Amino acid sequence: MAVARNSSRQRSPVTVGAFLSAGRDRLGLELIAGEAGLGRIIAEPMVHRPGLALSGFYGHFAQKRIQVLGMAEHAYLNSLPEDLRVQRINELFSLKIPCMVFSRNKRVFPEVMLVAERNNISVLRTGMVTRHFIQTATFVLEDLHAPSCKAYGTMMEVAGVGVFIEGDPGMGKSETALGLIKRGHALVADDLTLLRRDSNGNLMGSAMSVTKYYMEIRGIGIIHVPSVFGVSSVRGEKQVDMVITLKRQGEADAELDRTGMEELRREFLGVSVPQLVIPVAPGRDLVNLVETAAQEFKLRLSGFVAVRELDSRIRQHHAG
User: Fold this and answer.
1) Are 93 and 115 in contact (CB under 8 A)?
2) Are β-strands 66-69 and 99-102 bridged in parallel, bridged antiparallel, or unpaired?
């Protein structure tokens, strides 16, 4: 088994500002106070309801997590005398929490905004129901904390299979992707793909936000794929199921396995993915080859491996 490695990196520490940017649309977040606190680090990718901390008990308090105040917490603070409420808020913010989020579009107490500004801690608000916010925010935080890297190559969904196509410039990656799109398959990212390892250990591919759904085709220029081929021609993110490496005919000879018995693998972010090396030469139909490779991959998942079946038949023939 041959394994090709790729350099990877861990993401930089996730800040409150990054969380706000990532969740502005998905979570409906808005900044209410404490803009100076957007640079604070969210050390643990989880959301916490302060609960007992609002009553003055801080045993086992998860101060490294985002603190969310839902209907119950808001009602409790509202029931306190103003001087006691200020005391509780001061105590909570003195623990240097990353930020505080008010759910259900609840009114933010003026004293919270004052304490937040004084301690440089951001206060955010969302219209989401608390439990829905916690669930969705956890996914957002996991994405932000996930190890990631950028890889030069084109990511496609071909017959439901996530295919990452890599190769030197001029090998025809984008043209191959264009042909696949015209056959009804979908583009995820062109030229530069953002790879991340999710919490389940799967390798996920997506486009950089600035180039999402755009392709560069030599001789034509830049095209916006969904505008030309419709919204079904693109995907936001897809698991990388296999890597197809395009190499010039001579360069690929050393790695070429005519039978398919040898299993090559490509590694990104510690995740090993099946790899297929396809020689590129004049007259070769790369679109057809990549499509066939994806369909063969699906067939192998069902347990049918053509080369093993043929080998078994040949052995039986000789034995007979």
Assistant:
1) yes
2) parallel
Helices 16-26 and 130-145, interaxial angle, to 10°? 130
Are 209 and 167 in contact, with CB atoms under 8 Å apart?
A: no
DSSP-derived pairing of the beta strands 203-207 and 237-239: antiparallel
**Residue limits of CATH 3.40.1390.20 in the chain:** 16-145
Asked whether the beta carbons of 58 and 150 are under 8 A apart, the reply is no
What's the rounded Cα separation, in Å, for the pair 261 and 304? 13
Under 8 Å between Cβ of 242 and 162: yes
Single out the residue of 283, 292, 264, 295 nearest to residue 5, CA to CA: 264
Q: Which of 273, 279, 7, 289 is nearest to 167 (CA)?
A: 279
Which residue positions in the chain have pLDDT lower than 70? Answer: 1-11, 251-261, 303-311, 314, 317, 320
> pLDDT digit string (tens) for 83-139?
999 999 999 999 999 999 999 999 999 999 999 999 999 999 999 999 999 999 998
Architecture of domain 148-311: 3-Layer(aba) Sandwich (3.40)
- Class (C level, CATH) for 16-145: alpha beta
Percent of the chain with pLDDT over 70: 88
- Its pTM stands at 0.66
CA separation for the pair 239, 140 (Å, rounded): 17
